[in-house]
Write a structure and sequence with these properties.
Layout: E1 25-30, E2 33-34, E3 42-48, E4 55-64, E5 67-79, E6 86-93, E7 101-105, E8 114-115
Length: 118
């Protein structure tokens, strides 16, 4: 999940839309993820290309909370020349995303959600 304001620290995920969030919120992998110290884990970003066709990549290397051996690697991609389009890319999910929720919600966003633990 990427939250820019009014974020919750409650360890829970559910189907979307969720009343926990009032703003536009992206959920590339809503689960109890954690960045462990002294690892290469983190959240990284990069801008590629030139205006007006730049691409913003946000890349996540994380583990599940209290389960350091559960590893996740995924990206969120924003396209400058395609406002309103967001792409999620998944490279590694040790447990196949068994308990996560994926989607987005807010304002006039079309909702696409899939809860993987159904």
């Amino acid at each position: 999940m990427i939250c820019f304001s009014n974020c919750s620290t409650t360890y829970t995920e559910s189907e979307l839309p969720s009343d926990i969030f009032s703003d536009v919120t992206l959920f590339p992998f809503w689960d109890d993820l954690y960045i462990y110290a002294n690892t290469s884990q983190g959240i990284y970003y990069e801008s590629q290309g030139n205006s007006p066709s730049r691409l913003l990549l946000i890349e996540f290397y994380m583990s599940h909370y209290v389960e350091e051996d559960q590893f996740y690697h995924f990206q969120v991609r924003f396209f400058e020349n395609q406002p309103g389009i967001v792409e999620y890319r998944y490279f590694d999910a040790t447990d196949q995303g068994d308990t996560c929720t994926i989607g987005m919600q807010g304002y006039s966003v079309s909702l696409y959600s899939f809860q993987m633990n159904e």
